[in-house]
Each structure stands twice: as C-alpha cells, then as structure tokens.
Design goal:
The chain has 13 helices and 6 strands. It is an alpha/beta fold. It has a 6-stranded parallel sheet, with helices on both faces.
Length: 317
C-alpha cells in the first residue's frame, strides 16, 4: 500500500547538516540569532535537504478542492456550488493565490479530490474520490477506505510534482464549509470543546456561529473519533481536501522536501498527517497565523511557530 510505504520512508532531519548550517549562520557579520525565525528555517531546510547551504528548486502550490455534507446544517452563508465555481479562477491564476503565486514565482496545481459536482476543464487535475463528504453532524465524513484513497491521491500528486523538479511544496484549499470539519479535527485531536475551536470562517454571523458549534458537538458525539488515530479522525469528521493535503505533507516528507502550510484548513491537514506519522512535523513550515480562532491552538499542538501574523483567513494557499 502506498500510504504504508510512504510512512516508512519518512525519516529524521540531517543533524550534521543542521549543525554546519548553524555554524555558517553564526560566522556571518551579525549578532547570533538576530535573524530570528529566518535562521531557524534556514537550519531546518539544511536538515531537510542534507545540505548546509540548501538551494530550493521549483516552488509549487497544490490546491485541493472538496465539498462538505455538513453545509446542510447551515454552517456557512455561502452555497456549496461556490466550490466548483471558484476552480476556473484558480486554474486561470486570477484568484488570491494566483496573484501571490505569480509574485513568488510559484506554479499552481489545482486538484478536484471531492467537489460535489462534476467538474472538467483544461488545467484541472481530476482525482475525485467521491462527490463531497457525508454530513459529519449526522454520520461519518467518509469510509476509512476513502480516507486512505484521498491520502494516497495527495501523496501521488506531491511525488509527481517533486519528480518534475519541485523543491518546495505549498498547500492550499477550496471547499465551502471546510472550517467546520477542520474545527472538529482540532477538537478531536487536541481534546478541546467545540466552543474553544470554532471561528467565524467566511463572513459568519452570531447565529451561524452557534450552528457551527452545535454541528461540531453532534459530529464528535455521534462519530466518537479516536484522538490517538489520525486516520479514524479524518474518516469520521474530516474532509476530502484535508485528506489530500495531509497526503501531500506525507509525500513531501518521504522525499525530504519542505512543505509550507497556509492557514486553518491546511494546518488541520498537518495535524492529521503528524498524528499518522509524527516525524512529518519536521518537514513543515508554518507560513502565518490565521485570523481563525483555533489556528493558534493548532500550531501549538504541532509546536510550530508562524513566520508572520497578518490576520488573514482566506485559505487557498
């Protein structure tokens, strides 16, 4: 099985390369440690690549798209059709991530892993596992077999891009309602209450916020995810794009490639990936602190320090 093989291939960072990188940084004309997180990332990249002066190859943003049955509960003010409607903008490079990726010299790969409508147009990578998840407030998001398939889709996409020359992968998401399963994942793995983890998502008012809290409480009560089993949490209260992104992280780690995570949804994917294989954490860089309430809790769980805090909550990568 691809997943098992990938998990076995994820190793620890190269400590001699990290020590050499630190010595080089300390030899520069500056006070030791004065570049803060940038120095930590430089040493981390040395450990990932095995080179004291690492060079990053092509930058690729992998955006996974999927829909969520829990929108039936009214957890989002946006209709689920928006997921499919946004995909052409991603592929055309005119969505938010397109502008930022162009500025950074990064290429975007857009993957339909679980959009609830049939979608097909040039430039879209079609890897649909199923037409959206089940409603987690009434039952599991997907079967364990579907969760494994979605994880393996992410692994395959990541490793194909690495074989094409990618030296840095960034993760992005698109899925109306996906802050709800992300909150449920955080509550399940971190042992938090729904009230502690739920944020407003996209333009959510007080009434919808209360609906989200109740939906997550029901999801946890009905599905009873095992907090020690990342795959169980993913299948019961997760999302297809979250599973795919977790697979991207695992696939990159197995090939010793750094992964840049975005905000709340991609960090939920990182939580799942690291619960499945804790060594994957060493390959993750947290790009920023989201405006979503639970994002700080997620980063604390992962022991990751965000590079910047811009109060963003767009997603997309």
């Amino acid at each position: 099985m691809l997943l098992v093989k990938t998990l076995e291939e994820i190793g620890d960072l190269n400590l001699p390369a990290m020590a050499a990188a630190q010595r080089r940084l300390d030899s520069l004309i500056k006070p030791p440690g004065s570049l803060g997180i940038l120095e930590e990332i430089a040493v981390q990249l040395a450990g990932i690549t095995g080179h004291p002066s690492p060079r990053i190859g092509e930058k690729v943003v992998i955006v996974m798209a999927g829909d969520h049955g829990v929108v039936e509960e009214g957890v989002s003010i946006a209709p689920p059709e928006v997921t499919a409607e946004m995909l052409p903008a991603f592929v055309a490079g005119v969505a938010g991530i397109g502008v930022l990726a162009k500025h950074a010299g990064a290429r975007i790969v857009v993957v339909d892993i679980g959009v609830a409508a049939p979608v097909d147009f040039p430039g879209l990578l079609r890897k649909k596992v199923r037409l959206g998840t089940g409603n987690i407030a009434r039952g599991p998001a997907m079967t364990k077999e579907e969760a494994v398939t979605a994880l393996e889709v992410g692994i395959q996409v990541a490793q194909e891009e690495i074989e094409r020359g990618a030296g840095l992968l960034a993760t992005g998401d698109m899925g109306i309602g996906n802050t709800t399963p992300s909150s449920a994942i955080l509550a399940a793995i971190g042992g938090y209450t729904a009230q502690e983890v739920v944020g407003r998502g996209t333009l959510v008012n007080d009434q919808v916020l209360e609906i989200k809290v109740r939906a997550i409480e029901r999801a946890l009560e009905i599905n009873k995810p095992n907090c020690q089993d990342g795959l169980d949490v993913l299948a019961k209260v997760g999302g297809l794009e979250i599973a795919g992104l977790a697979g991207v992280i695992l696939g990159a780690a197995a090939r010793r490639i750094p992964v840049l995570i975005d905000g709340f949804i991609t960090t939920a994917a990182a939580l799942v990936a690291c619960k499945i294989q804790p060594k994957a954490r060493q390959y993750i860089i947290a790009s920023h602190l989201s405006g979503e309430q639970g994002h700080r809790l997620m980063l604390d769980q992962l022991r990751l320090t965000p590079v910047v805090n811009l109060n963003m909550r767009l997603g997309e990568g």
